[in-house]
Amino acid sequence: MRTSARRITLASALVGTLVLGAASSYAVTSGLTGTGDATRHDGDQTRQVRSEIRQGPARNVILLIGDGMGDSEITIARNYQYGAAGELPGIDALPLTGQYTTYALDPSNGLPDYVTDSAASGTGWATGTKTYNGAISVDLDGNSHATILELAKKAGLRTGNVSTAEIQDATPAVLMSHVATRGCKSPSGMDACEAQKIENGGPGSITEQTLATRPDVVLGGGARYFAETATAGEYAGMTLMDQATERGFNVVTDAAALESVQAADQDAPLLGVFAPSHLPTVWNGPLATPTGGSEPAVTCEENPAHTADIPTVEAMTTKAIDVLDDRHARKGFFLQVEGASIDKQDHAANPCAQLGENVDFDHAVRAAMDFAERDGNTLVVVSADHGHTSQIVYPGITTPGLTRTLTTADGQPMTIAYGTAAQGHSQTHTGTQVRIAGYGPGAANVVGLTDQTDLFFTMKNALGLDKKHGHGWWPWGR
Ligand SMILES: [Zn+2]
């Protein structure tokens, strides 16, 4: 099907771009063809930028994390789908941008570990605390730190957590649970988390803690863990899915059932589990290989595994916002949305699946921005948890690593290189700073160079949350 996933979605994307152009204070030259004039801003921007700076507090915060979405991943997605002079209708619409550092800590000495994973980075933005790779909202000493979702809930706000991965995966897990290492997802996987075992008086696995934390909305994959049986505690002998039902969750397992949900609250929180593991990617294509860069350029295809009964991240985001936003409630909401498989397909050296997830994630960002622009009192932050492997290199070349050449929306070849692992092995994260972008009350706090842990305070302050929270620990003083 070489009509390509891109052309199928281009029409709606163009509509999105035009709407954005009208709503944005930025003059954007959307050049899908090489016209020579590719400027993105018309004249001096001082007044435009000033008008985008608004002080908090915000009623709502929507945080969208593109897992592994470094600058090169964003550029790859933009080039392929909208052309080099085009723009991503969601991510590129956020007016205030900065960069943040993402390093973790080496547990042997507390000094920087320059390449983070999603667990340590998530603990950073979720709790304001630097920690070691693998840690789920615990610090170097194993102490739990309250998360932005827990604090928001405690303050009476509604809360939601959405991912295209298993909801037990590190990024969603850091908001709802505290375990020594990210693999402790279910009762059968607790070997490395002795202190968290229910048998030892602990709070249990990530799945069990998710049910106890009880956000109003949790959407993603990971059904295989809910099929396990609790080994101790009040629900011993019961599957975790039966436990969810017993505890009052409204469980849905396909897109149609999600669409029909009208409300979610503490009486009946919404739990959507749409796949045994991670949700399938929306697009697919040939992997990068040692000679792929010099082979004929390809276009990406829709992935038949992403069937109509699996909701898109945009559909999950829209539904989460719909049920969390209650104009009659005194308080607002906190929502996190993760585009997880940008990272997972970067690991796999699959450029089409990777950039398709980035384009799809951007639709969720656009949905969040549409809501925030209507609402007028919502802080939207878009960032990544860490950098990743993929790089745009000279067209048609091969490298010592893996490459693949794609035909972009410009009709030009774009060669993507993966160079952090050999063929057949998982490509690795990288330690670069990544983009953070904001819109709405408090968004000025993302400008310049910050650290991932600063995002916790940006969100907490925007929501006016009282901080009953341990302090971060930086042994070198910061
Ligand atoms: Zn990863």
TrEMBL record:
<keyword id="KW-0378">Hydrolase</keyword>
<protein>
    <submittedName>
        <fullName>Alkaline phosphatase</fullName>
        <ecNumber>3.1.3.1</ecNumber>
    </submittedName>
</protein>
<feature type="region of interest" description="Disordered">
    <location>
        <begin position="32"/>
        <end position="51"/>
    </location>
</feature>
<keyword id="KW-0597">Phosphoprotein</keyword>
<dbReference type="InterPro" id="IPR018299">
    <property type="entry name" value="Alkaline_phosphatase_AS"/>
</dbReference>
<feature type="compositionally biased region" description="Basic and acidic residues">
    <location>
        <begin position="38"/>
        <end position="51"/>
    </location>
</feature>
<dbReference type="GO" id="GO:0004035">
    <property type="term" value="F:alkaline phosphatase activity"/>
</dbReference>
<dbReference type="InterPro" id="IPR017850">
    <property type="entry name" value="Alkaline_phosphatase_core_sf"/>
</dbReference>
<feature type="signal peptide">
    <location>
        <begin position="1"/>
        <end position="27"/>
    </location>
</feature>
<dbReference type="InterPro" id="IPR001952">
    <property type="entry name" value="Alkaline_phosphatase"/>
</dbReference>
<comment type="similarity">
    <text>Belongs to the alkaline phosphatase family.</text>
</comment>
<dbReference type="Pfam" id="PF00245">
    <property type="entry name" value="Alk_phosphatase"/>
</dbReference>
<keyword id="KW-0479">Metal-binding</keyword>
<keyword id="KW-0732">Signal</keyword>
<keyword id="KW-0862">Zinc</keyword>
<keyword id="KW-0460">Magnesium</keyword>
